[in-house]
Amino acid sequence: MKQNDRKHKTRAVLGAVVLAVTLSPAAAMAQAFPNKAITLVVPFPPGGVTDPFARFVGPKVTESIGQQIVIDNKPGAAGIIAAELVKNAAPDGYTLLMGHAGTHAVNSSLYSKLPYDPVKDFAPITTMIVTKHILVVPADSPAKTVTELVAYAKTKKLTYASQSVGAGGHLLGEMLKMRTGVDMTHVPYKGSAPALQDILAGRVDLFFDAPITSGPHVRSGKLRALAMASPKRAVQFPDVPTMAEAGFPGIELDFWFALYAPGATPVAIVNRLNSEFVKAMQNPDISKRFGDLALDVVTSTPAELAKLGAEDTVRLGKVVRDSGAKAD
């Protein structure tokens, strides 16, 4: 072997040794990521807003990274069960949380003590979707407008459903109570699907729900839509007025869902996950599919998601405090 060749080989070996010695465990982990399936923990039962991720987004990400995205539904306790599970998971990028405005903004005001810190215990990855809310009543309800619903609520104490304590339907129900002075009883569920069963059966009187779940029942005539609790009408329901158009401005809430990893997850892995999920969400086919379901695709950087969570902790926390709502 020539002397120059020996020198080059020696340098290459020394370089590899130095790299092996200096590469931190976190950096080594990030370089190998991902090499197995990724579990996405969802704080709702099947049949709700988050279902399209399993059907549409998961396969797109799998196609890109070569590993399966497994959906693990862990409903209950306003998302606390799912959040605590992910908080305690290994910070390696293989267990993620589908968090939302409830888990990462509202719960800190609703509960005097949480088993997780929404900021310290999670690494934000990206926002995913924003959903509007549609106010629905049973088809045989005497109320055909929001004004009639409020008048009816002044003659009889009504019940209103929500997807869970702290969810969009809960906050909007509290907003309606504050705005009108009517007294209603909150009935929380573990997701939209069980709440829908009861409103369809007439066991609860009204529900601020996502159009993706209530929409089919509105179209079939089993539920009556009174208003959109959003700044704008939904293109899927052009004849349904906003709450402001119905005479009740200020009762609106677009609820966001976002992706989080355990807090100590390496930045390189967080950035890789951000890149893969943002790419999947921004695929024109995915955007159209979500749009058809009245879900707006809204992606972000990790820093932008952290800022959103901080701002809504203040904004939505005020709604909780003003309403006097408490979960414990």
Summary tags:
12 helices; alpha/beta; six-stranded mixed beta sheet; D-Maltodextrin-Binding Protein, domain 2; 2 domains; 19% strand; 328 residues
Could you characterize what this model shows?
The protein is an alpha/beta fold. It has 2 domains: 33-129 and 257-323, D-Maltodextrin-Binding Protein, domain 2 (3-Layer(aba) Sandwich); 134-228, Periplasmic binding protein-like II (D-Maltodextrin-Binding Protein, domain 2). It contains 12 helices and 11 strands. The chain has helices at 3-22, 25-32, 51-65, 80-87, 101-110, 146-153, 168-180, 192-200, 211-220, 267-281, 284-292, 302-323; strands spanning 38-42, 69-73, 95-100, 122-131, 134-138, 158-162, 184-188, 206-209, 223-228, 255-262, 295-297. The chain has a 6-stranded mixed β-sheet. A 5-stranded mixed β-sheet has the order 7-6-8-5-9. Helix 7 links the parallel strand 6 and strand 7 (184-188). Helix 7 (168-180) crosses helix 12. The chain starts with a helix and ends in a 5-residue tail after the last helix. Mean pLDDT is 90; it is low at 16-20.
